[in-house]
Every structure is written in C-alpha cells, then in structure tokens.
Amino acid sequence: MIILGIETSCDETSIAVLKDGKEVLSNNISSQIDIHKEYGGVVPEIASRQHIKNIATILEESLEQAKITMDDVDYVAVTYAPGLIGALLVGISFAKGLAYGHNLPLIPVHHIKGHIYGNFIEHEIELPCIALVVSGGHTNIVHIDKKHKFEILGSTLDDAIGESYDKVARVMGIGYPGGPVVDKLYYKGDKMALKIPEPKVQGYDFSFSGIKTSVINAVNKAKMKGIEFKPEDLSASFQNRVVDILCKKTLKAVKDKGVKQIVIAGGVAANSLLRSELSKRAEEIGVKVSYPSMSLCTDNAAMIAAAAYYKLKFNEENIFADLTLNGKATLDITKD
After folding, report:
1. What order of strands is seen across the sheet that includes strand 261-265?
2. All domains of the chain, ordered by start, with CATH?
C-alpha cells in the first residue's frame, strides 16, 4: 500500500511517500523558518504564499526520490485540521486536484493524530498508551485504546508549551524559534537561579502562562534596574519547571490508566531534557517511552501518511473525503 501524504498546516510544505505504514520512501520538507524569523513568529499570509510557491516542486522531488509515479500511488492523504486556514487550504486544494486527476481516494488527516502516528513509523507501539502532545499550538495528554480510539485527558488552559518557549525566547532576545535555543542554553545555566512557582492546576490540565510571566518579569526587572540578566539561567529555570510538570502530569495519567507505553509527539518532542527526563522517570516504574527521530518531530508529511494508514486499518466509516473537503482552523482530536 502506497500513500502520498501532504502537510501544509503551518510553515512547512511537506510531501511524503509511505509504503505499508512503515517504509518512508521519501519525506521532503521545505521550511520557512528563515523567512518568518525576522517577524518573531509565523505570518499566515506569507506562509500560504510560500506553500503555493513550493508545493508542486516538493511533489516532483518526493516522487523522484521514492522512484515512483502517481500511477503507483494508492491513496492521497492531506492535513485538513487544525492549523492556519490559508495554509491548510493550499494543501487541501492540491490534494483534491491530485486525487481527482488520478482517480484516487482522498483521506483527510487530523494534524495532531499525524504527530502521534509519527511514532508508529519507527517503533512498535504497545496499545493502550498515553500520548503527550507538545507543540507550538498544542499541549495535550491523550489516551489511545487498542482500537485506536482517542480520548483527551488534559489540555493547556492558556498557552501551548511551544508558544511559551517562543515568547520566553523573544523577551530574552535569543532568537526564533525559541525551543531549540532555550534547550541548548539549559545546560549552561543554573536551573535554581529563578524560583518559578508551580501552577496549581488539578488533574491532567496544564497552565504555562504564569511560568512564562515569571521569566518576563525577571527580564523586565533586570532592565529597569540596569542589571544584566543571564539568558542561560532563565532558560534553565524555565525549562526545568515546564519539563517537570510535563513529566508529572504524563506519569499520573500512565498510573491512573494502567498503561505501559508513552509516546511523545509534536515539535517539542525534540526537546532533549523532556526526552531524557521522561524516559528516566518512566523506566523507574517499568514504562516504555518512545519518541520520533528529529526529522519526524517537526511538521512533515510522512506522519500524515502514517495516520491515514491506521485510519484505513481501524476506522470502518467516514474514512474518505470528496471534493467538498474544507480546512478547519480548530478541531477536537476526538471529532475527527
């Protein structure tokens, strides 16, 4: 089974070819980070224009790398939600054209499910499991049962974790995107330099607004007093607190649900401290932690094709879309 995946939910244009849900024949990504860096974040209209400019070339490269033609493709899969609506519509329109032109079934894919299924490409995942979804726009704890049914256990009440990293990095003036920079500085700083209180949020939900504000206040106070602040110390204090919270909430869900497997998904799954700390704490209670390789952490089309593969295997209805398929800026993962 060969699935062509298309991903344009934010600022990466990606097309991939996946065989039998595991073998990545190609996974080409055109990133716009350098374009949006000067603005300190993604500009939706610019992102959409870049997708239009790049998507046909990315298709040609992916087919050539996979050594196939469109005649070898069995299904076309595309991200339809959630994301920047203009960006989504570029990928959806392109996918509909390919599906119609080559008489292929079209499979709509939820972006977050794609991130989760990125783990299934490289690892044998034991279900039921707990998925920790950590990205620029999402922070969720999700329970996945043996039939691949999704249940959201917890979500962020304010900022997403990746968004918080970006805002903290911006106020310190250390660059965009903030996640990789803060992660690198963590190992050079004193994690006890800034005392950041833990938010009093019950259950599996998260709140990062107060943590972010603690760093912003520390920077503003230092500037007002003419004191030089140390980005490495603030980065270490910030990351130490947020990773501790992510680990504690995830392991609480693991114990409460009685599962033996955790998967980390989303762009922040690339964070080195989160990977090592959650793996260490989980190992102590006999739980396995899986996370994608770095190339599958960022937005990519291989994960979209993988999600489509499992949708075909485990969903009995509402699998395919027709040419009326539209994009959705927001969509609960359980409504897909």
Report:
1. 150-155, 139-144, 129-134, 261-265, 288-290
2. 2-116+296-335 (3.30.420.40), 126-292 (3.30.420.40)
State the pLDDT at residue 11.
87
pLDDT of 316 higher than 90 = no
158, amino acid identity: D
Share of the chain above pLDDT 70, in %: 99
Average pLDDT, the chain: 94
Please tell me the pTM assigned to this model: 0.93
